[in-house]
Amino acid sequence: MNRDLVVSLPPTAAPTGWVRLIEAMLDAVWLVNAESLHVVAANHAAGELMAMAPSQLVGKDVIELATTPEDLFFWGEVAQGLSDSIESDTLVNDTHGVTHAVTRRVSRVQAGGEPPYFVVVLHDRSEQQRIERELEGASADLRATLESTQDGILVTDLVGRIRNFNQRFAALWQIPPDMLLQRDDDAVLEWMRRSVGDAPGYMRRLAAIDDATMLQATDVLRLHSGRVLERVTRPQCMHGRPIGRVYSFHDITERLEANERIETLSYTDALTGLPNRRLLADRAEIAIAQARRDGTPFSLLFLNLDRFNHINETLGRVYGDRVLLDVGDRIKTCVRQVDTVARLGSDEFVVLVNQADSRAAETTAWRMLDALKQPFSQGGMSFTVTASIGIALYPTDGASMDELMRRADAAMREVKHAGRAAFRFHRDRPEADHGVSRSRMRLDHAMRLALANERFRLHYQPQVDLNTGAVIGAEALIRWRDPELGEVSPGEFIPVAEESGFIVALGDWVLKHAVTQAARWDEAGLAMPVSVNVSALQFQQPGFVDGVAQALREAGLPPHLLELELTESILVQDAQDAMLRLQALAQLGVKLAIDDFGTGYSSLAYLKRFPIGRLKIDRSFVSGLPAEESDVALVHAIIHMGQALRLQVIAEGVETEAQRECLRVAGCDLFQGFLYAPALDVPAFEARIGFVGPARD
Predict the structure, then answer these.
(1) Among the ranges given (273-287, 370-384, 482-496, 636-650), the one the predictor scored with the smallest mean pLDDT
(2) How far apart are CA 518 and CA 529, in angstroms?
(3) What is the strand order of the sheet 423-425 is part of?
(4) For residue 624, what are the contacts with CB-CB under 8 A and spacing of at least 6?
(5) Helix (H) or strand (E) holding 103
(6) Which whole number is the average pLDDT over 5-21?
């Protein structure tokens, strides 16, 4: 032999044939003497396994090489003649103390007249175990990855057999655990088929996927459980060739529900669940198309609750919302399923009545008014809610929803002005009325330009003591001369300003300039109180009282030289709020008067509570003096009321000596009007009262 692979120890030396045989074997082999149980030969592979030269193994007692109790037990039985073979997985230690996993096979052999031997074959399993551990790790990583995803994963081979899945897949499809444990692919696939709402469609799509090996597809499955799954299928490839298919199932139920909620909210009112303006527009388009096709009309009813803000103020918005819900339910009982009840917002509802002429629209309107007459109960209170309804008919009143809405709204507002709690059909206004609307728009625009360009001015009308003839005050009155419109009467532009809300800015301008002029007079030695009219909208602004105080402070005017004239409507709209504002003004030292007294709804109770110092008799009652007995009686009643409450009384619009004398005899204190002087600019006013002030620049 060329290599020292075998060591012979007399008298148990291994035959040369055995040595050559075991050296030719790939696995590690020991040849053990059956009597002495000593190693008599070992091949090169055995030396590598044990980390020593093969010759170092020869002569060793096989018991010394035993590593496990099993080996010791086996060789003990061999020594007793109780065993002669074994095959099992065991361990061996090399000379460095490193343990190797091996598959060990021991066989007793004897040839001819030779002594018996034990052939110990050791197959090194270390590399195999390493690969197995790597595979187990990879498998564990794959399993962890599958289980960590929110999607359900199913992996099949090309013929549909299940190769892998995760628990999310089982949960989404609600597959029984025992079915998965049985690994019955057909039962699982059948369960999936029965779980889908559209089983035939599901099977057709599955067949199409199976026919196209490389197909990538996405579809949506609706299950009987209510879940909606998005299925994504992709081919599973190895070395560029398909070996199966991977299905991922993503639960999109909540996303779809959220989208449906968003879609619902975009078409319905959030409070009542009724259609909103957007859905109403869609329904109106359908109604218009049907009406054009069939030649049948339909009607649009615009309903607005009367004085609904009082409910919110009295009960609060929570109960107010409950009333709106109740109103919506009552309106729905008055129409058919083919009709549409929509809420536009606040207290406005619109009803689209399909295939309805004027008679059907009128019937529906009466039903709604009757339904609302039934008492409402909220917050421990019972009350009645009324509504004003405007009606527009297609195609008579408009060819589009916008036109019908606008005209039904206009009809509803006419009901409001006429007293509420009724309905009215749209009526075409004369062309002159349309011209008035357009001129109001032009007038509003021109007013705003005039304020920006300082085109307004103030005139002052003297207020005269009826007994002495002395001028004791002046009312500031706004005037406007426009370069295009010419001289514009306050009776023309003030109502437009009130309607558009521009009256607030205009009122602030009047207040500031009137206070400034009064301060100039006071500084020049003329203590002339100035009266300024205040609109209801201006009075209700949150910063009104502070604005008055600021104007007085900036001009340096003593507060008692400013009088604010308020309309009666201001006092009755929100009595508590009005009381607080008036008290704050009185604390400033500002005088307060009621303008146009007798035209509103004031009562003695209000006059007694509010810090009012003067009543102004409206010119409509003065114009009939002394000929009209009713006007005489009303004027006497107002004067006596003022005297009883210790209030000054001033009459406006006095144009004749007979009117002045009638008022003086009745006990009126003051008057103003053309009899003494119209409203005058500052130089003319000063000249009329005989005041000579300092020279002007």
Answers:
(1) 370-384
(2) 7
(3) 340-345, 348-353, 298-305, 387-394, 423-425
(4) 630, 631, 632
(5) strand 99-109
(6) 59
* Count of beta carbons in the 10 Å neighbourhood of residue 37: 16
- Cα–Cα distance measured from residue 389 to residue 304, given in angstroms and rounded to the nearest whole number: 6
* Tokens linked to 466: 């009826």
Among the listed residues 549, 526, 645, the one whose alpha carbon sits nearest the alpha carbon of residue 594: 645
Question: Which residue is it, tokens 């006596």?
Answer: 640
CA distances from 362 to 101, 110, 359, 422 (A): 99, 121, 5, 11
As separate numbers, helices (DSSP H) first and strands (DSSP E) second, the chain gives 27, 26
Residue whose C-alpha is closest to residue 563's, from 537, 589, 601: 589
The whole-number pLDDT of residue 5 equals 38
Distance between CA 350 and CA 344 in Å, rounded?
Answer: 7
Q: Is 378 helix (H, G, I), strand (E, B) or coil?
A: strand
Bond prior to 462 in cis (omega within 30° of 0)? no
How many CA atoms are closer than 13 Å to the CA of 242, on its beta-carbon side?
18
Radius of gyration of the chain (CA): 53
- Say if residues 631 and 665 touch (Cβ distance below 8 Å): no
Burial level of 599, CB count in 10 A (0-12/13-18/19+)?
middle
Q: What is the DSSP letter of 628?
A: -
Backbone angles phi, psi at 561, to 5 degrees: -90, 5
Q: Do 544 and 502 touch, CB atoms closer than 8 A?
A: no
Tokens 């549409």 appear where?
Answer: 340
* Residue positions counted in the chain: 697
Instruction: Measure the CA–CA gap between 353 and 297, rounded to whole angstroms.
Output: 9
Helix (H) or strand (E) holding 90: strand 86-93
- Tokens 């009606």 locate to 391
Confidence (pLDDT) at 366: 94
Q: Retrieve residue 596's tokens.
A: 């146009």
Contact indicator for 109, 85 with CB cutoff of 8 Å:
no
**Residue 582 corresponds to which amino acid?**
L
Cβ neighbours for 465, distance < 8 A, ≥ 6 positions apart: 471, 472, 669, 670
* Predicted confidence band of residue 647 (pLDDT cuts 50, 70, 90): very high
Work out whether the CA dihedral 386, 570, 511, 517 comes out positive or negative: positive
CA distances from 572 to 426, 612, 617, 638 (A): 32, 14, 18, 18
Angstrom distance (rounded) from CA 305 to CA 29:
105
Rounded (to 5) percent helix, strand, coil in the chain: 45, 25, 30
Q: Which residue shows structure tokens 């396994």?
A: 49
Burial label, 2 (beta-carbon count in 10 A; 0-12, 13-18, 19+): exposed
Strand boundaries in 439-541, DSSP class E: 456-465, 471-482, 486-488, 530-534
Element (H, E) at 284: helix 277-294
Q: Which residues of 414-425 are buried (b: 16+ CB within 10 A; e: fewer)?
A: bbeeeeebbbbb
Element (H, E) at 571: helix 568-573
> Tell me, what amino acid is at 62?
V
DSSP secondary structure of 164-179: EE-HHHHHHHT--HHH
Instruction: Quote the Cα angle for 553-554-556, to 5°.
Output: 60
Write the DSSP string, 115-153: PPEEEEEEEE-HHHHHHHHHHHHHHHHHHHHHHHSSSEE
CB distance 236 to 155 below 8 Å? yes
**Residue bearing the bigger pLDDT, 16 or 657:** 657
Task: Please report the sign of the dihedral spanned by the C-alpha atoms of residue 188, residue 190, residue 193, residue 196.
Answer: negative
- Do the Cβ atoms of 249 and 156 come closer than 8 Å? no
Q: What is the pLDDT of residue 605?
A: 58
Instruction: At 366, list the tokens.
Output: 């009466």
pLDDT tens digits, residue range 254-302?
Answer: 888 877 776 666 778 888 989 999 899 999 999 999 999 888 899 999 9
